[in-house]
Task: structure prediction
Amino acid sequence: MTNIAILGFGVVGSGIADVITQNQESIEKKIGDKINIKYILDLREFPDSPFADKIVHDFNIILNDDEVSIVAEAMGGLHPAADFSEAALKKGKSVVTSNKHVVAEVGDMLLKTAEENGARYLFEASVGGGIPVLRPLGTCLAANKINSINGILNGTTNYILTQMIDFGKTFEVALKEAQQKGYAEANPSADVDGIDACRKICILAAIAYGKLIDPAKVSTTGISNIRLEDVKNAADSGYAIKLIGQAKDVDGKMAVSVSPRLVPYDNLLAKVDDVFNGVLINGNAVDDVLFIGRGAGKMPTASAVVADIVDIAGRPELKNQIWEKATDDDLAPAEENVSRYYVCVKNALNEENVKKVFSDISSITLRDGELSFITQPLKKKVFDEMASKLDVVSWFEVL
Ligand code: HSE
Result:
């Protein structure tokens, strides 16, 4: 019998219990053993839930029960989730999680702790919700040098942008809907300001390059500076604006960032809408590979968590990844990054004035006294210098 404990009975935790219960027979066939949810840890009581008799309030009950071999952490937040995970691993219990905050901050330490204690630490659900992407990146694409990863990694912001652009809804209405559907973080600033996407691109980069970057060191911009005018200008020129997490190899160093970018319509990421996430990986042998699926929500996220449980129970011989911490020396300098830029300026008077600064521009659009255009590829420091000479209203990188 494989006994598991679920930490947290919120959106994801209850989804894990539901998936295991609904698919118990096929899961048991896959692992070749019976599976039993022995405990669910939560501060609250759930008297009307079919799982009411599993609820406990003290983590030590789980920690000290040798029958529990797998802990599914779905609490959210860094503490106490990270502490409970570490304690469980130290007892030799394997831990699975959807908690990107914990993985992005202390995943290196938890992987090492798992390895030292004969346990496993898996976190497929922490990036891309239900999309299988971490395991394929770490195993099926292991033969490649990863040139770049570009991802729409936050379902809430993608949902908000899609609702605003396609249905003319206000930001507030769209955010409320995302919260009602269980997509949004407890504090929606983590979604809107790009913090959640930042954690996820750090995890993807760690799998691709073996080094975990401190999320605080990643240049991160959210969606609150996207104006409807920019969306229209971009659309007129054949681009969708998406919040993109990017990690790329620049001469052996990692360049990692999160920001809204103009994505050309002929790039498959431009068509990833609503709560869907998309991760486009370029490897030097395989070329482009695209992963798409539901990036948030109860059952898609639970699907990935339970798959990790099945993996641990069914294939106990597999090993953990080992990550080092990235140092400043591992990171490519942001000012040297080369990109094309979308720029919108006011009081430009005419195209010729702009061309005196940015000599080579395209996709020129004039709307309500503002002139927008796309530059040639420029180093960030050169772009900053040029942009300072004009009355810039908004700018975004072009993918
Ligand atoms: N708030 C996250 C999102 C949940 O919207 O993508 C899934 O990680």
